[in-house]
Each structure stands twice: as structure tokens, then as C-alpha cells.
Design brief:
about 30% strand, nine-stranded mixed beta sheet, QueA-like, alpha/beta, 8 helices, Thrombin, subunit H, six-stranded antiparallel barrel
Length: about 350
């Protein structure tokens, strides 16, 4: 399949620059088969059923962006992609000239950082401090908003570009479908008989990377780490036994679950995933997906097309544009039932 088959025209005014005033007040497009229904996020309570299990990603966005200078004095910007240990991290480095292995950078005025070498498009960095990398980022870093949000991160973003259930620090982008939930909605779901289960997938900056190859199979997928607790495997087994569905909140939850089921049976544990879900993929775990609207020519749009049907999902996106839904991280949501018979 060609990458340009996953393109669509999106007016810039539909890219949400700020979250809604209150969590859970967004619109919701319900896609089932060839049908589309315009709903509100609160209607999710009517779309789920007792005995369903809702799987959420509890990753926490870190303040991964740092500014500083090289030894030469040249300005640099560092975006930590992954914390490797207490004092080392992988990061993107923006500078007029790429830093060399063995050189030093000085970030946030106080942090001395050595460039240990390169790992593909990332640099391996060592932070010289008694504090851990995560502690240093919390103190000196800035929240890394997506590239399509035009303002610098502010106090509102620090609260709202984070889910209410964020726990495991490590992501550089939010699992945005989870941003719609407040504690009241989570409790209402439990009261209805829906199980709540958790996975952790630390979202990397590669989630925003468009596919630039002519054919989608030529694209090199970025790697992310994930963890599936045994309690989640057990909750999914209970839901299946009771006739309930597995509902993934976000493409990150879906990718974690499908990655952990490549041997057919869902396995608890942790691992790395480069899973690239495109039309033709056979889903092993997830029956329904709650997700935001995704970038043109992105691997996430391809995933959605695989899940709900390419013709149906591209039609849904055209409908969302015509009805002026809000797009991307701070935008509106879709609830998609898996379409195994779509073309």
C-alpha cells in the first residue's frame, strides 16, 4: 500500500491548541461497521457494557526538553527520548553541528552532560549529578508538547497534558485518549460493571513521525518499551469468560496488548515493541478502541484503518473534518468497534 493513500486534508483551525475547559467534555465519534454517530464523550457510558474490560496506559509524561550550550558555546536543545538508568539517557540533540562522542554539554546552566556516542538518530548521554535523570528532568526540564501545538508548555499543559491516572514516569508524549477521563468517569464505569485494567507503554517522540517512504512497508518503526501486569491478563480472561469485550484506551494500549500476544496467547511481562499495525493485520486481543484523531500519513492512522476498515475510517475522518471535530492530542475522540470484514 502507498503512503499517500492515508493522506487527508485537515484545515489548520481544527488542530486543537488547548484542552477543553473540563476533562470529559469533548465530542465522540462512534464508528461501528459502516455507521457513524456523533456523540459526546459522556456517552461512552452507554457504549460500554457490563463485563467489558477497559485497558488504560498509566505512563507519565516526563519534562523531557532541556536547553543549554555545547563546550564551544553553541546553543543546543535536548529532548530525552528514553531514560536508560539513573544517570544515562537516549536523546535527540538539536544543534548547528552534531556533538561528538566525548564532548560535554551544559544544560539548564547547571547540568554537565557527556556525549557517550550515537545510537541511530539518538545520542547516548551521561548526566553528572548525585540526582537521577528523572529527578533532574523534573527540576530543570520542560514538558515536551507535540510539534503541532504552537505555544510553549504552560501551567495548564502541565496539568492537562497528563492523564489523571499517570503513574510510571517515562513517556515523552501523552497517551492522549486517556486525557478525556476524570475520576468521576472512571468510577461510573466501575459502577456499571466495567473492569479497569492497566498497561504501561512509554510513548516515544516517534509517535509524531510521519511515514516518508513511498510504500508503507518500507517504513522503519520506532521502538517503545511496554509492560503488561499479570492482573491485566487475568482481567482480560475474566472479561472473555463473561462474554465481555477488551476495549483499548488509545493506540498505545492496543499496541502493548497486541505486542504481548504475538505468540497467540496474551503474556504478562515487559518488552520492546516495534509493532507496525497496518491494513491486513489480524487482531488477537482488542475488540474496541477509544482513540483521538491522528496525523495524516502516520502509522497511527494506518493502525486505525487496520482496526475499523480503511474505507470506513477514511470516511470517518472526512466526516470529522466536515463536522469540525477537534484533532490530535487535545482534540476529540473516536470509539471504534473492530471491523473484521472491512475492505
Amino acid at each position: 500500500m502507498r503512503t499517500d493513500e492515508f493522506d487527508f486534508v485537515l484545515p489548520e483551525r481544527l488542530i486543537a491548541q488547548h484542552p477543553p475547559e473540563l476533562r470529559g467534555t469533548s465530542r465522540l465519534l462512534y464508528a461501528h461497521g459502516d455507521e457513524l454517530e456523533d456523540c459526546r464523550f459522556a456517552d461512552l457510558l452507554q457504549l460500554v457494557r457490563p463485563d467489558d474490560v477497559l485497558v488504560l496506559n498509566d505512563t507519565r509524561v516526563i519534562k523531557a526538553r532541556l536547553f543549554g550550550s555545547k563546550q564551544s558555546g553553541g546553543k543546543i536543545e535536548v529532548l530525552v527520548e528514553r531514560v536508560l538508568s539513573e544517570h544515562e539517557a537516549l536523546a535527540q540533540v538539536r544543534a548547528s553541528h552534531a556533538p561528538k562522542a566525548g564532548s560535554f554539554m551544559y544544560l539548564a546552566k547547571n547540568l554537565r552532560v557527556e556525549v557517550l556516542g550515537r545510537d541511530g538518530r539518538f545520542f547516548r548521554l551521561r548526566f553528572f549529578s548525585k540526582d537521577t535523570v528523572l529527578e533532574l528532568l523534573e527540576r530543570y526540564g520542560q514538558l515536551p508538547l507535540p510539534p503541532y501545538i504552537s505555544h510553549a508548555a504552560n501551567d495548564e499543559d502541565e496539568q492537562r497534558y497528563q492523564t489523571v491516572f499517570a503513574r510510571a514516569a517515562g513517556a515523552v508524549a501523552a497517551p492522549t485518549a486517556g486525557l478525556h477521563f476524570d475520576e468521576a468517569m472512571l468510577q461510573a464505569l466501575r459502577d456499571k460493571g466495567v473492569q479497569i485494567a492497566w498497561v504501561t507503554l512509554h510513548v516515544g517522540a516517534g509517535t509524531f513521525q510521519p511515514v516518508s517512504t513511498e510504500y508503507i512497508r518500507e517504513h522503519s518503526m520506532h521502538s517503545e518499551c511496554y509492560e503488561i501486569p499479570q492482573a491485566t491478563v487475568d482481567a482480560i480472561a475474566r472479561a472473555r469468560g463473561a462474554g465481555g469485550r477488551v476495549i483499548a484506551v488509545g493506540t498505545t494500549s492496543l499496541r502493548a496488548l497486541e505486542s504481548a500476544a504475538q505468540g497467540e496467547l496474551l503474556q504478562a511481562g515487559s518488552g520492546e515493541t516495534r509493532i507496525f499495525i497496518m491494513p491486513g493485520y489480524r487482531f488477537r486481543v482488542v475488540d474496541a478502541l477509544l482513540t483521538n484523531f491522528h496525523l495524516p500519513k502516520s502509522t497511527l492512522l494506518m493502525l486505525v484503518c487496520a482496526f475499523g476498515g480503511m474505507k470506513q475510517m477514511l470516511a470517518a475522518y472526512r466526516h470529522a473534518v466536515e463536522e469540525e471535530y477537534r484533532f490530535f492530542s487535545y482534540g476529540d475522540a473516536m470509539f471504534i468497534e473492530r471491523n473484521d470484514h472491512a475492505v
